[in-house]
Design goal:
With about 450 residues, the chain is an alpha+beta fold. The chain has 14 helices and 18 strands. It has 2 domains: about 280 residues, Aminopeptidase, CATH 3.40.630; about 120 residues, Alpha-Beta Plaits (2-Layer Sandwich). Strands 1-2-6-3-7-17 form a 6-stranded mixed beta sheet, sandwiched between helices. Strands 11-13-9-14 form a 4-stranded antiparallel beta sheet, covered by helices on one side. Strands 4-5-18 form a 3-stranded antiparallel beta sheet. Strand 4 and strand 5 form a beta hairpin. The protein binds zinc ion (ZN).
């Protein structure tokens, strides 16, 4: 067996460029299957993609199994080199967001290849990174580098991983590993790799108010009838200052982990720029132009967000009614160490005090996540990124939430590391989603290096 000191860069480069054609063909095969987990019509496609994924894993010498859950299956692969060696598991998801074909330049479920750019739904989120890892693992196997690699390929990430935790509980021994790498995150810019060591969580809720059985005439009843849209809007404005984003609910910020000076310094070195952010998201103006404030707002502070207000008259012109019911859709992004249940309790108490007959309906929950950026795995990840991309990575946190992460941390009780390959311009969840050979080829080198570094660690 070889160890990481034997890595031959020229040999790896050749392996990677020799792999390009088959990588592209396999990526196309996967992207062309519309694995939209939100769409019940795609059940058959998901089964087909799971079988395809298992076939790919078997082609590199891994054992592959399609494990059923109450929802979509999980494909588990195992490349075994010997039980005496360390094991690393890689998590990716192969389900995708829906895509409205009319808005795309090309068909979302017919991957195109143009100058090393792969366009199609799921190319960057997360099929491209999944296959990139697989090609690195293939090299590890061919070179007999002593590390065991497991693959956890989920098909329900885009709907919040509703069955993943149960899957982990049911198959603990099969999934045993010394660490998990998640490859489903986004760099701040192409200029610099990035490692995330924290994620925001999420608590959704709906608030509803019903003050009668039908909309009524504003001339006959106005002034005396209550207006549920107005009352809900008032409650929202009491919950938070929409101009600054500051949440005014007592206790809301109690458990927010303070950002250390070192973390803030890393955020500022990450390649983030306010102008770049505006451009990437096509936003005309922001709550602040100050970079120090901006990075904290998206990575280290919780939010209160209104997603929609429903109620009243929605047609053209003005219809003079007083509405009889209304609904507001809300979510809060939560940061370490906020507890969603505790936050929800604060919010519920506050809203009930303001307006006792508002109905509060709890929606989905995802807990925030934090890991030590200085642990040995993050250090190995940083070394691997430098090896592959020539630059030290930025250490930042992710503003989004990945439900499976907290479940894996709790159930498998191992460190979780983030080694993503996606870029802002790849269009996560957006039209014309794409991935590219630069990131895939660099990613193969990065994971080869990472696996070899892990192989040199004691179990
Ligand atoms: Zn994803």
């Amino acid at each position: 067996m070889k160890t990481q000191v034997d890595l031959d860069i020229a040999h790896i480069d050749k392996y990677v460029s020799d792999s390009r054609k088959s990588y592209e063909a396999q990526l196309k095969e996967l992207v062309d299957i519309p694995t939209v987990s939100m769409d019940p019509e795609c059940k058959k496609d998901i089964e087909k993609a799971a079988a395809t994924a298992a076939k790919f894993l078997e082609s590199i010498g891994a054992k592959a199994e399609i494990i059923k859950t109450k929802g979509n299956p999980v494909v588990v692969g195992h490349l075994e080199q010997g039980s005496q060696y360390p094991t690393v598991a890689i998590y990716n998801h192969l389900d995708v967001q829906p895509a409205d074909a009319e808005e795309w330049k090309t068909k979302p479920f017919e991957m195109t290849i143009e100058n090393g750019t792969y366009r199609g739904r799921g190319t960057t989120d997360d099929k491209g990174p999944a296959l990139t890892v697989m090609y690195a693992a293939k090299y590890i196997k061919e070179q007999n580098i002593p590390v065991n690699i497991k693959f956890f390929w989920e098909f329900e990430e885009e709907i919040g991983s509703p069955h993943y935790e149960q899957f982990l509980k049911d198959h603990k021994s099969k999934l045993a590993t010394n660490s998990v790498v998640i490859s489903d995150t986004i760099w701040v810019s192409r200029e610099r790799p990035a490692i995330q060591y924290g994620l925001r969580g999420l608590q959704g809720l709906m608030i509803k108010l019903k003050t009668g059985v039908k909309d009524v005439h504003s001339g006959l009843t106005g002034g005396l009838a209550r207006n549920p849209i107005g009352e809900l809007a008032q409650v929202i404005s009491e919950c938070y200052d929409a101009r600054t984003g500051e949440v005014k609910i007592p206790g809301f910020y109690d458990d927010v982990r303070p950002l250390s000076d070192a973390e803030l310094a890393n955020f500022l070195k990450s390649g983030f720029s306010v102008d770049g952010f505006k451009k990437a998201h096509e936003l005309h103006s922001l709550r602040t132009e100050d970079i120090k404030d901006a990075v904290q707002r998206i990575w280290a502070r919780p939010t209160f967000e209104v997603h929609g207000i429903v109620g009243g008259y929605k047609g053209p012109g003005v219809k003079t009614i007083v509405p009889h019911d209304a609904e507001v859709k809300i979510s809060m992004r939560l940061v370490p160490d906020q507890d969603p249940d505790k936050v929800l309790a604060c919010v519920t108490k506050f809203i009930k005090e303001k307006c006792p007959d508002i109905e509060i309906i709890k929606e989905g929950t995802l807990r925030p996540f934090f890991s030590d950026p200085d642990n040995v795995f993050n250090k190995a990840a940083a070394e691997s990124m430098k090896f592959a991309f020539g630059k030290d990575p930025a250490f930042n946190r992710e503003g989004g939430s990945i439900g499976a992460v907290v479940s894996m941390h709790d159930e498998l009780k191992v460190p979780i590391i983030f080694m993503g390959l996606s870029l802002p311009e790849h269009g996560y969840h957006a039209i014309n989603e794409n991935f590219d050979w630069q990131q895939a080829s660099g990613g193969m080198k990065m994971f080869i290096k990472y696996f070899s570094l892990v192989s040199a660690m004691t179990k």
